[in-house]
């Protein structure tokens, strides 16, 4: 039973619910409060994740040194088939494609570089000769 009698000093009483809540607010050490749940989350003030240099999200784990979003520092970007929408958002063609958008045109012409195109004789010059 968790009741106290002021007249009986020999009786050892367990802490009440109010006292337990007070202990968690006052700042009694975590291991003494015997809780890992709601009351302990307010005491956590260190960050587990920081910004990832590849994807820019705050998903880079400080201790694991891996990004939960893109998988950095692994060479290939993290992607799974269970997230088809996620793959669609990040696939090739959703960004600038600064280099890749010119490749198809260069392929049609055989990837020639440094040479100028030969001028075709115009129709007007052919008529005069």
Automatic annotation (TrEMBL):
Pfam families for this protein: Ribosomal_L37e (PF01907)
An annotated GO cellular component: cytosolic large ribosomal subunit
Stored PROSITE patterns: RIBOSOMAL_L37E (PS01077)
Keywords tagged on the record: Metal-binding, Ribonucleoprotein, Ribosomal protein, RNA-binding, rRNA-binding, Zinc, Zinc-finger
UniProt entry tagged with the keyword Zinc: yes
One annotated GO biological process: translation
Matching SUPFAM superfamilies: Zn-binding ribosomal proteins
Gene Ontology terms, MF aspect: rRNA binding; structural constituent of ribosome; zinc ion binding
Family: Belongs to the eukaryotic ribosomal protein eL37 family.
HAMAP family named among the record's database cross-references: Ribosomal_eL37
Protein name: 7844_t:CDS:1
UniProt source species: Paraglomus brasilianum
Higher taxonomy: Eukaryota, Fungi, Fungi incertae sedis, Mucoromycota, Glomeromycotina
């Amino acid at each position: 039973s968790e009741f106290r009698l002021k007249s009986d000093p020999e009786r050892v009483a367990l802490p009440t619910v109010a006292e337990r809540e007070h202990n968690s607010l006052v700042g009694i050490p975590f291991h003494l409060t015997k809780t890992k749940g709601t009351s302990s989350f307010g005491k956590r003030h260190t960050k587990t994740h920081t910004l990832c240099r590849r994807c820019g999200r705050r998903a880079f784990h400080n201790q694991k040194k891996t990004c939960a979003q893109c998988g950095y520092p692994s060479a290939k970007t993290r992607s799974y088939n269970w997230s088809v929408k996620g793959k669609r958002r990040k696939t090739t063609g959703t960004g600038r494609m600064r280099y890749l958008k010119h490749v198809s045109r260069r392929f049609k012409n055989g990837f020639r570089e440094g040479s100028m195109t030969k001028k075709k004789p115009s129709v007007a010059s052919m008529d005069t000769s």
